[in-house]
Amino acid sequence: MRRLVIVSNRVPAVRDRKQPAGGLAVALRAAVRDHPCLWFGWSGQQIAGDCADRPLSVDTVGNVTYATIGLTHKEYNGFYQGYSNGILWPLCHYRAGLMNYSRHDLQIYNSVNTLFATRLAPLLEQDDVVWVHDYHLFPLGKALRDLKIKARIGFFLHIPFPPWSLMRSLPEAATLMRALRAYDVIGVQTEDDARNMNEAFAVLGIPAKARVFPIGIDPDSFATCAREGQNLPQLQHLQQDLRGKPLIIGVDRMDYSKGLPERLRGYATFLKRYPEYRGKVVYLQITPISRGSVPEYQSLRAELDKIVGHINGTYGQFDWTPVRYLTHPLPRELLAAFFQLSSAALVTPLRDGMNLVAKEYVAAQMPDNPGTLILSRFAGAAPDMEDALLVNPHDSDEIASALHKALSMSLSERLVRWERLRTDVWRVTAASWARSFIAALSEVRTA
Ligand code: F6P
C-alpha cells in the first residue's frame, strides 16, 4: 500500500497522539488507520528568533510518523494569527467586514507555505500520495510543484468557500485560485462550496474543478465514548443536580462563526416567551477559548461574558442559574455522556464548513430517549440532516420556537427523527470520507 502523506497546519499534540481531540485531527486519525502515514505540519510551538535551520521533530505512534516544525513569533503572528485566521477565516465564513487585511501578513503566509514545501520535499518518497488540508495551506501544492515534486497531491478545504463576488474582495484572490491548479484533486464539504469555487475558476478561466467530499465522524467510537462516559462521577453529579430538569447543551470553539451571541439571545427569547420554563430547564454552554490572541476573538469573549451575565441577571433565581457557561474544554467521554443526558442540543453556527458536533450529538444518543438536534441551516451538515430542527441562527424567535418544540416533542417523533439522522451519520463517516478522497487521488494519472 502507498504511503499517505498528510499535511495540515494543526497536528495532534504529542500527548493527544493516541487519542486526538479536535475536529480535523479526530477525522484524520480515523481516516489514516489503514495506511502507513507521514503527518507533517506545525508543532504548535513558537520558537525564538529567525531560525533558518529549525529542527524537525519526528515521532512515530503506530502506523503514523509525525514530523513537525516550530514557527517563529513573526510567522505565528503573520501566518497563523494574521493571514490565516484574521483574513482567510472571516472571508471564507462570509464575514469580509471582519478581515484585517495586511500585505505584510500575506508575505509571511506565502513564506511559511514555501518553508513547509522546502522541509517536506526531502521527506517524500516515490509513490507517496500527498493530501494537504485547509486554508492555511492553499499555495502549498504550487510550492511543492516549484520544487519539482511529481507526486499526486490533493487538497481538501474544511471550511466554507464563499461566492466569487465576496472572495474577490481579497486582493490576491485570483493568485490563490491559480495556485490551486497545482493540485490533482480539490475537495470541499458541500455542493454550495463546490458551486462557489467552480464559479471562481470559471470566471478566471482556470482549468480546475472542485468536487464534494463531505466529512463525517467515527460514530462507533463516539457512541462508545458516550457509553463509557456513563460511569464518570461528573456525569452522575450533573444528573443529580438537574433533578429531572431537561438539559440543553451547546459545545463550540469560541469563534464568531458559531453564532454564540445570537444563540444566547435565542435562549433569552425562549425564557421570555415561555415563562413556564424559567427555573425548570438548564442550559450548559461549553465554549473552549480558541485563537485567543486574535482581536475579534477577544471581543467575542467580552460580548459573551456580557450576554451570559445579562441573561443570568435578568432571569436567574437564588437557586437557579439559566446559563451555565464554561470556557475550558472537557474530556471527550464526558462530553459524549453529557450529550446523551441532554434533551436538546443547540448547534447554530452562522456559517460552518460541516460541523461535526451535530453528528457527534446524534451518535451519542440512545434509542430509549434520544435528544433533539437544533441545527443551523448554514452548517455544511444541514442538507443531510433535515430531520433535525433546522433554524436560521439570526432569528432568535425561531431558536426560541425550536427549543419549545424540542422540549415538548413526543418520544415517537424524537425516535423517528433520530433514526433517520443516525442512518446518515453512520453512512458518511470520517473513514468513508478519507477513502473516497484517497480513491479519487489514486485514480489521477500523473504527468
Ligand atoms: O476546521 C477548521 C480548523 O481551522 C482546523 O483546521 C483546525 O484544526 C480547527 O479549525 C481548530 O483551529 P485552530 O487550529 O486554529 O485551533
TrEMBL record:
Entry-linked Pfam families: Glyco_transf_20 (PF00982)
Membrane-spanning segments: none
Top-level lineage group: Bacteria
Gene3D superfamilies: Glycogen Phosphorylase B
Name of the protein: Trehalose-6-phosphate synthase
Protein family: Belongs to the glycosyltransferase 20 family.
Annotated GO biological process: trehalose biosynthetic process
Single annotated GO MF: alpha,alpha-trehalose-phosphate synthase (UDP-forming) activity
SUPFAM superfamilies for the chain: UDP-Glycosyltransferase/glycogen phosphorylase
